[in-house]
């Protein structure tokens, strides 16, 4: 689990133990859209699984030349490996399976008497996992969503004199939310999924929607539900205690007057929020360690040694 998810226990400390899902989030599609969504949900601390059938539409591309950060372009195999590495580093489980059906469980973790919805995700091999939320991130089709029973997902069109159906690319709103609670669509979405970098951006947007809704469900007031995932230098914190007091004051100022949460619950959410904000600040040593780890993982994927030449030569010993 990613470091960013450490405060999750504090958010739920006083809540009754719910019937367990296998995952908080199941993402169908392991291309740029799905992996980007997974990086956000995984880093937040939500148990996330990404299903990848191994045939992302990206693999029809001969060579990727317009993805920011690769001035010379990048071959598809390397890029695909990198986005999978990133999703796993964020805490996601990657499953190389084609999803055949997403169905409602009828309740929380399969309990038909529970009020919280959930989903059963079944793969081509017959394996089934349950998830609190599902993100569709597969550009082609959406047939696996048919068992959810909403005819509004699909539209008809004429092709060579035949009437056919296809997934409605405008079914979800811009944030990825749908009329089915817990179901999000990051792909297919209108024109967004036609370029890899745009697809990744939409995946990130939908991943943040999932986190926002999770926080709302945990009791965070709407003004405090959005979460920002970034890392800042610890040197900006002149006084740790003063910063924590400032964050508490800011939290309280955004709680509406008609909030019906108990003071004890608000206190728990406030302290969890303060801890999350504190975790965003890291020391120079941590930054250096993460930078080195990042270079090593990139080098391993590209197949070369990331260490300075002097270090590599010293390992070889005298000739």
Please characterize this protein's 3D structure.
This protein has eight helices and eleven strands. By secondary structure, the chain is of the alpha/beta class. The protein folds into two domains: 20-218, FAD/NAD(P)-binding domain; 231-309, no CATH class. The strands form three sheets. Strands 1, 2, 3, 4, 5, 6 and 9 form a seven-stranded mixed sheet that branches. Strand 1 (23-28), helix 2 (32-44) and strand 2 (48-51) form a beta-alpha-beta unit. The longest helix has 23 residues, at 196-218.
CATH class descriptor name of the largest domain: Alpha Beta
CATH topology name of the largest domain: FAD/NAD(P)-binding domain
Q: Beta-strand percentage?
A: 15-25%
Number of helices: 8
Give the % helix: 25-40%
Note the run of SSEs as H and E.
Answer: HEHEHEEEEEEEHEHHEHH
The number of distinct β-strands equals 11
Computed structural class: alpha/beta
Radius of gyration: 22 Å
CATH architecture of the largest domain: 3-Layer(bba) Sandwich
Q: How many structurally independent domains?
A: 2
The major beta sheet can be summarized as:
7 strands, mixed
Average pLDDT over all residues:
87
Uncertain segments are: 1-7, 13-18, 108-115
Global morphology? globular
Distance between the termini: 44 Å
CATH homology superfamily name of the largest domain = FAD/NAD(P)-binding domain
